[in-house]
């Protein structure tokens, strides 16, 4: 039965080396990387049904969000421009 280990170092896949390679390969396409790894997550869940889902998620996808780049700032909506609750009720 497949246990998803690296063919080069025998560590759980993706191993640290493969993670670095994937980060470099998908540097400009993080969503594509997540989709690629998500498809492997599904296959691994079928191959290793005894493994907790959270552990598989951390192993296959969770590490992709750990970057040294700062997260983009969230824009705050100007409360003066947004209609208040009473204004929405009156409009409707």
Describe the fold and architecture.
The protein contains four helices and no strands. The chain is globular and about 40 Å long. It has a domain at 16-67. It has helices spanning 16-25, 30-47, 53-60, 85-91. By secondary structure, it is mainly α.
Strands, helices and their partners?
Layout: H1 16-25, H2 30-47, H3 53-60, H4 85-91
Strand content: under 5%
Specify the number of helices.
Answer: 4
SSE run = HHHH
User: C-alpha Rg, in Å?
Assistant: 21 Å
Please outline the major beta sheet. Answer: none
| Mean pLDDT across every amino acid position | 82
Shape: globular
Q: Separation of termini?
A: 60 Å
Low-confidence sequence ranges: 84-89
The chain-level structural class is: mainly alpha
Tell me how many strands there are: 0
Helix fraction bin: 40-55%
Brief rundown of the structure:
The protein is an all-alpha fold and 92 residues long.
Labels describing this entry:
92 residues, globular
